[in-house]
Every structure is written in C-alpha cells, then in structure tokens.
C-alpha cells in the first residue's frame, strides 16, 4: 500500500512537470488541469506513509498496447483520473486519439456555471451582447464535488460580444467579424482572423471539430445557409454553401466523422466532410403524440447510437405558468429505414445523459454512472432547480418534474427559437476538452 502511494506521488510529480513545460494548445494538458489533479492527490498523500520502494521504470508502462490502455480508461471514475492518465507519458496521451469509441467513458463531463443569470423573459427579441469583462464561471466535477475552478475572460478582451456556443473546452464568441475562443479551464484566448464583411451580421452558431484522423482543430461558424471554416493556426477562412433550408441550426453533434444538425423546424441534416463536402437531409417522422409536441429535441451520441431526448411539457389543473411540469422521453434514432424512425426507449439501462438548455452546447452520455456516485437511467440537466443546492438537476427517465422556475419553460415550445437558442448569453453547460470528448469521432 505504501509503495503504491509513493509511486502515485512520483507519477503525479512527473505529470505536473511535463504539463508545466507544454504549450497551451487544444488537446494538451494545462497547468490548471494538472493543479486539480495535484489538489485531489494531496488530500490523500498527506496522511500516507513513506516507502523506499523504487518506482518502476518508465519503459514498463510506455509500451502497453492501445487496446489495453483503452480498457484501463473504462475503469476511471472521474475526469481527474483521465487527466492523470494522459499526463503520464507521450505514448499514453497519443493513444487516446486511437480509441474506437469516446462515448463509453464511465466518468461524467464537467459542469460550467455562469455567474450571469439569464431569464428568457429578459429577452426583447434582439441580440444581447455580453460584457466579457463581467464574464466569469465556476467549473465543478460531479465525481469530485469538493474540487472547483474559478475562471474568467481576460480583462483586455474586446468587451462586447455574442455567445455562439461551446465545444472542446472552449467558449465561442463573435461580434462584427471578430471571433474569439476562450479556454474554460485556463482563460487563455485564441483569436481567429476577421471574417469577410458579408458574414459579420449573420453568424449565430459555432463549434469546434477535428477532421477524421486529425488532431488539428477547426472552428466552424454558421449562417442560415453557409459554413465558414478556419483551421487553428492559419490566417484565412474557407466558405462552403451547405444547401440548408434557411433556418437556424439549433444543435450540432459529431457522429462517425459526420455532423448531424437540427434546425429550428426540427429538420435533420447530415454534413459529410470527405472527400468532398456535401449535405444530406434526413427524412424523419416526428410523432407529436409520442414526443409531446416538443419539436426542438436534443441529440445525444451514446455509443454507436444517436438518441433523441424530448421534453413533454404539461399544464396543471389551474391556469398559469406556475403549474408547468415536464417529462423526459428518449428515442433511438433509427437511420437504417426511410424515413428515419424514432424508437422509444423505456430505460437507458446503465447509461446517463447530460444536456444543456442552450442546444448549441454539447451533449454527453456516461456509462455506469454509479462508479462516480451518479445514477443510471437519468437525464442530467445543466441548470439547477429553484432552491436547490445542486448546480444541476438529475431527472429519472419517465418521471415528472414539477418546476416553478424557468428552465422547463426555457426548453419548451412556449418560447420561440430565438429565446431557447439564440439568447447570446452564456448559460450553464456540460463540457470536456478535445482530447476527452473526441471532436473528430
């Protein structure tokens, strides 16, 4: 036991030293991420005894095959365990990109809570700019509730911008041709080149992706018909016409190298990237009697499936917004038939799903959540209930949620798309960095 603790301390020391000398770029460890690992380990190491047992040679572990390393990651119970894994050596960090599936982890995403509260009733139908000097947030790990990080946008940042979404550990902002990426863990910035003038007033959604078999992140910004693409580190944008229906995309998910996108009318599109970019519309039958009239669902990748999460909103006996209740339903998106079918799932078995109210933010699934203190067959909503100490809400599939605050309304048909999506404000969300979330998968 003592020898194992001693080896753990030595490994953590090597991880911290390697991370402190690395460049803070997408997909690498940052000093703040390593600091969280050290905070966690210090609490146990302070009470441990000493040992003179020498640590094993680095060559013993560096040569483990990728398939075995993949099996090891499936045993992790927290994001901090994974950070420790990828910080051990270069070969282990490189092995992450070769994993066949990034949607079978048994640890949850991290939770980001904005210090700026936003109500849809505050929205006047116009874009609301964020004062980035006031943009602060707190990051929490559901698996290690006592560890949190406080972060903010650097004070010298261009002050007025619109929130465009989040992806791969970055917040995405835009204003008059200027876009900005802010690392949620370090606060560091990436400033892309200015967009062409004709696109300056029409961008409404953004995401990051890594093309298949590539570690190079690309920023994608969308208008109603066009996608602008910028590879991080280059000095120019490329423009592609997508052939969409002219509606705003509400959600973008990555599945098997393609983008699945849903617009404000619940139309589903698949954007193929290689060898030539193309867009295909997916014909799907939305059975409103089953999904409760919610035409703006969430898509969640779960293993080799795409799931559709809907929120059926019901009114109580008396009239008024205070009598709202909601029930989540989950469907398997069957793309093997034409038109595509929604097959309702009674249970999520040993999975939990994570969604944010702003559908431009990423969604996640988690395998065997009991390993970190979570619960299977649950939907974890990034927004907290009124008078709750938890910064998020866990709802068991099929169970009603009676709510007097606004997050049920915020995700329901009671508000048009400009309220539920294009609010331009940073809301609470779930997040993982690129080397965990697998943007290119």
UniProtKB/TrEMBL annotation:
It comes from the Eukaryota. Residues 1-16 have a biased composition (Basic residues). InterPro entries: KIB1-4_b-propeller (IPR005174). Residues 150-387 form the KIB1-4 beta-propeller domain. Residues 1-21 are annotated as: Disordered. Pfam families: Beta-prop_KIB1-4. This is KIB1-4 beta-propeller domain-containing protein. It comes from Lolium multiflorum (Italian ryegrass).
